[in-house]
Amino acid sequence: KSAFDKEWERLTAQEVWDMRSVREWDDVAAEARRTNTEIQIANVFSICVEKNSELPEGHPNRKYKGRVVFQGNRVWKQDWEQATFLDLGSAPATLQAARFADCFGIEGYDTEVADAVQAYIQAFLTGPACWVCFPPEARPKDGLWDKLKRPVVRLIRALYGHPDSGTIWEKNVVTQTSERLVLNL
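Request: output the structure for the sequence above.
Response:
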C-alpha cells in the first residue's frame, strides 16, 4: 500500500493530472457531445511489483515498486465509441541501447544501461482532451469526490500505457534535447 501511495503522490505532485478539474464522467462526455468536441475518457490503475525479489529478505535493494498506468486498451470517445490511435509511435530504444552496451562489454569495458526516471510524464499530452478515472482506493477523501459516481480529472502529461505516450515523449523531450545538444556543439 505504501508503494501505491508513494506513486500516486509523486504523480499528483508532478501535476500529471489536474486535480481541480474533477467532474462526473457522464457530464464530461455529455458536454463534449453538446459542443461537438472530441475527447477521450479512460481509467488509470495501479500495479505493484517486488523489485529484486531474488535477493535475501531484508536486503536494502529488495522493495515494492508501485506504478500508475493508463488503461490504453479501453479508451472511449465522448460518444462511447472506442478511441482509435494511428499507432505510428516511436520504437523503444531499450533493445538497441542494450545491444550497444553489450558490444562495448565484449571489448572488456564495464557497461550499464539505465532508463529515464518517469520519462513519459516529462512531456505534455497532445491531441484530444483526455480525462481519467481513478480507482476508488486512489481517490481523495473529500466531499466532492465522495459525491461523484465516477469522478474524472483531466490528464495533462503523457502517462505510461497511453497509446501515444511514447511518440509524444520522443517528439517533445528527446527531439528538444537533441536539438539543444546540436546547438551546443
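Confidence is low (pLDDT under 50) at residues 181-185.
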